[in-house]
Write a structure and sequence with these properties.
Helix content: 10-25%
Distance between the termini: 76 Å
Strand content: 25-35%
Number of helices: 3
Structural class: alpha/beta
Number of strands: 13
Order of helices and strands: HEEEEEEEEEEEEHEH
Length: about 180
């Protein structure tokens, strides 16, 4: 019986250790496929993109989800200066992203951008310093802007913007 109790105690200890060793916490940071993330919420599991290593190239696809410590996290925020000055020529933003924060894509070489319908907020200088000539905004309700449209896109007068049919007036009134 002593052997059984020791075995049971050891099993319980290992299980508890595994639970502690493989837990996630708000604020944890990790990198996957050259993109750095910070855990922002647990249950639901969400992360913010915080940085990018240019070893990943100039064409970036941000994933909808990313795995960290045995859990899957939705990518919901592109953080402050996350892709600043990385010579990016192409970016794909997933439809899980709701917020693009200040200077997220500032000072790159983007000529086209598609902003998914899930994005509800765009920060100051989010796309400034890019030679963007075409933007497709998929939201039927215009995203709120922190600052003005000029703050978000430095060359806004030269950009052709495609918005969903039936929402043109909403965007004109929002500009």
């Amino acid at each position: 019986q002593l052997q059984f109790q020791l075995k049971h105690c050891l099993t319980t200890f290992i299980s508890l250790w595994a639970l502690v060793a493989y837990s996630q916490n708000i604020g944890d940071t990790f990198t996957d496929n050259h993109i750095s993330y910070q855990v922002t919420t647990i249950n639901p599991n969400t992360v913010t993109v915080t940085d990018y290593n240019t070893d990943g190239g100039t064409s970036v696809t941000i994933p909808q989800t990313v795995d960290y410590v045995l859990s899957t996290f939705a990518v919901t925020v592109i953080g402050n200066e996350a892709f600043l000055n990385n010579q990016l020529t192409s970016i794909e933003i997933p439809d899980t992203v709701t917020t693009i924060v200040n200077a997220a894509f500032q000072a790159n070489s983007l000529t086209r951008v598609t902003i998914p319908g899930s994005v509800t907020s765009i920060g100051r200088r989010a796309f400034q310093g890019n030679p963007i000539v075409f933007a497709s905004v998929l939201a039927t309700t215009p995203p709120s802007l922190v600052g003005s449209l000029e703050d978000a896109f430095s060359n806004r007068w030269n950009i052709t913007v495609l918005v969903p049919s039936g929402s043109v007036t909403a965007y004109e009134n929002h500009a």
